[in-house]
Design a protein that fits this description.
By secondary structure, the protein is α/β, with parallel strands linked by helices. Helices cover 37% and strands 23% of the residues. Bound molecules: cytidine-5'-monophosphate (C5P).
Length: 409
C-alpha cells in the first residue's frame, strides 16, 4: 500500500501553504508523492518547498522536465495511482468539469484514468455559487471523491464554508480511498484466462469468404482487463485490426475450425474460458483453390454446419473451470439466451440485444444481461472493459463458490 503513487495538484488559494504539510505527511507515511503547481499556486508557495518535502521534482509547466522524452501531463497521469487536487479552487473545478486543458495541471487531469479527488478551498460565496456546486456535482457523478471544505473565518474576512480541510483529514480521506481501491481491486494472479474474440472467416475461394460484423472489441477488452488483474491471458484473435493488449499472448485464427483447434488445445490450461468470438454456424462445403468464375444467372452454394465450439467446451470442462458464452439476440433475449446457457452447459452467458442502442458489435460500450443457472441480472450501459471486469469478477466468485462447496463435502 505504501508504495502507492500520489499526485497532488495545488491551485492558487491562500490555503496553498497547507499543501506543504499535506505532502510532507504523505511522504512520511511512505507514499511516493509528486506535485503539480499552477502558476497562481506558485505565487503562494515556492516549488522548492514542495520539492523538499516530496523529495521529487515539482512540475508547473508542460516543458519543465529535464527528461526531454517525457510528456509530463501524460507521464504523470500514467504514473499516478491517485490524483488529488488540494487545495482546489473554483477555477480548476470548473475546468475539470468542462474538460478544459489549458495548463499542465488541467491537461494532466484530463489525461488521468486513476481515481480522482479534490479538496476545495475558496471564498464562501464562490463555494456556494450554483456554478461551483454544479461543477462539484458533475465531478462527483463521474466518480471524483470530494472532501468538503470546513466552515470558519476565511482569509477574505467572510465567515462560512470554504476553508481547506485540515491536512490530517485529507490524509485520512486519501488512505480511505486507497484502501477501498485495494478491497475492490480484481486480482486474478495465478489464474489463466482463455478468451476468443472477433469474427470467423469461412473461405469460398482465395478471394471470397463468409463472415460477420464482429469487431472483436468485447473479447479484446476482456483480455485487457484480465491481464491488468494479473492473469496469464491467451487470446484467440480473429481477423481484426485491433492491437494486442499489453501482457496478452495472442494466437490468431481465421476460420471456425482453426479456432476450435486453438480452444481445444488450450482449454485444459485455463481456469476461465470465455467464448466472445462470433463463430459462423456454417462454412462452405468446399473451398475452391482458384477464384470461382461467374457462369449462368444463378449459383447454388452448399453450406455445412461448423462445430459448436462452446458446446464442445461445455462437454469437456472440468469442475474447477468456469465457462462463459455470449449470445447476440434480436428477439426474446432472456428466453433464447437461457436455452443456450443450458444447451451449451455454460456457467455464465452474456446476452445482448443487437437492437439496443449502446450494445453490440462495433461500439465501445455494451448493455447486457448476465445469465447464470440460478438467475439473471440486467446490467446498465458500461464500457466494454468495465463489462470485462464484471464478467471476470463473476467467474472468480463462481469458481470460489465451487471450491468452497467442494471442500465442505
Ligand atoms: O448459438 P449461438 O451462435 O447464438 O451461440 C453463441 C455462443 O456460442 C458464443 O459464445 C459463440 O462464441 C459460441 N459459438 C461457438 N461455435 C459456434 C457458434 C457459436 O462456440 N459454431
Amino acid at each position: 500500500m505504501k508504495n502507492k503513487h500520489i499526485l497532488v495538484g495545488v491551485t492558487g488559494s491562500i490555503a496553498a501553504f497547507k499543501a506543504c504539510t499535506l505532502v510532507s505527511a504523505l511522504t512520511k507515511k511512505g507514499y511516493d508523492v509528486r506535485v503539480i503547481l499552477t502558476h497562481h499556486a506558485a505565487a503562494f508557495i515556492t516549488p522548492l518547498s514542495l520539492a523538499a518535502v516530496s523529495h521529487n521534482d515539482v512540475y508547473i509547466d508542460e516543458f519543465d522536465g529535464t527528461n526531454e522524452a517525457m510528456i509530463p501531463h501524460i507521464a504523470l497521469a500514467k504514473w499516478a495511482d491517485l490524483f488529488i487536487v488540494a487545495p482546489a479552487d473554483a477555477n480548476v473545478l470548473a475546468k475539470a468539469a468542462c474538460g478544459i486543458a489549458d495548463d499542465l495541471l488541467t491537461s494532466c487531469i484530463l489525461a488521468s484514468t486513476c481515481p480522482m479527488a479534490a479538496a476545495p478551498a475558496m471564498n464562501v460565496h464562490m463555494y456556494e455559487n450554483i456554478a461551483t456546486q454544479t461543477n462539484l456535482n458533475t465531478l462527483k457523478e463521474r466518480g471524483w471523491k470530494i472532501i468538503e471544505p470546513e466552515s470558519g473565518l476565511l482569509a477574505c474576512a467572510d465567515t462560512g464554508k470554504g476553508r481547506l480541510a485540515e491536512p490530517e483529514h485529507i490524509v485520512d480521506f486519501i488512505e480511505k480511498i486507497l484502501s477501498e481501491q485495494e478491497e475492490n481491486a480484481l486480482s486474478l494472479a495465478g489464474k489463466t484466462v482463455l478468451v476468443s474474440a472477433g469474427p470467423t472467416q469461412e473461405a469460398l475461394d482465395p478471394v471470397r469468404f463468409l463472415s460477420n460484423h464482429s469487431s472483436g472489441k468485447q473479447g479484446f477488452a476482456i483480455a485487457a482487463a484480465a491481464a491488468k488483474a494479473g492473469a496469464k491471458v491467451l487470446l484467440a484473435a480473429g481477423p481484426v485490426s485491433l492491437p494486442t493488449p499489453e501482457g496478452v499472448e495472442r494466437i490468431d485464427y481465421v476460420s471456425a475450425r482453426d479456432l476450435e483447434k486453438i480452444m481445444i488445445e488450450n482449454a485444459p490450461k485455463a481456469d476461465f474460458i470465455i467464448m466472445a468470438a462470433a463463430v459462423a454456424d456454417y462454412r462452405f462445403e468446399t473451398t475452391a483453390d482458384q477464384k470461382i468464375k461467374k457462369s449462368g444467372d444463378s449459383m447454388t452454394l452448399t453450406l455445412v454446419r461448423n462445430p459448436d465450439i462452446l458446446a464442445g467446451l461445455g462437454k469437456t470442462k472440468r469442475d474447477d473451470q468456469i465457462l462463459c458464452g455470449f449470445a447476440m439476440e434480436t428477439e426474446n433475449l432472456d428466453e433464447n439466451a437461457r436455452a443456450k446457457l443450458i444447451a451449451k452447459n455454460c456457467d455464465l452467458l452474456i446476452a445482448n440485444n443487437l437492437r439496443t442502442e449502446g450494445a453490440g458489435f462495433q461500439g465501445d460500450t455494451n448493455i447486457v444481461t448476465l445469465l447464470k443457472p440460478e438467475g439473471s441480472e440486467h446490467l446498465p450501459l458500461m464500457s466494454k472493459e468495465d463489462l470485462g471486469r464484471v464478467i471476470l469478477n463473476t467467474m472468480l466468485e463462481m469458481q470460489k463458490g465451487k471450491t468452497d462447496h467442494a471442500s465442505v463435502h
